[in-house]
Amino acid sequence: MTTSAGFAVYWFAIDTPTKSNCDATCVGFWPPLTGKASMAAGSSLPGKFGTITRADGTTQPTYDGHPLYLFKEDTKPGQVQGNNINTSGGLWWAMTSSGAKITKAAPKPTTSGGGGYGY
Fold this sequence. Notes:
This protein has one domain (1-97). It is built from one helix and six strands; from the N terminus they run βαβββββ. It has one helix at residues 26-29, and strands at 10-12, 49-53, 59-63, 66-67, 85-87, 90-94.
């Protein structure tokens, strides 16, 4: 799945259908999508879009119960550098329309990722 601009959308394994567990430093690397779930309005995707309210009061779209995020290291459409990264207490996966995990590991980013925030 991608945004309308072609950027990969991710889900965080330790999130729940009602709560994002990515905050503080995490959101600097994994910015949550915000607003209403309009990515697939009128599409034929098999899953269900919804929203949650984040701890800061913003609305975050969900797909099949997974809050949705982008990844800072994806700098152009078509990249999935955040797939299968274990950080911030859990694994990150590129979202697919079926909810299946893409098992291919992402290439290591060319930057350090910043201040001790490791992959």
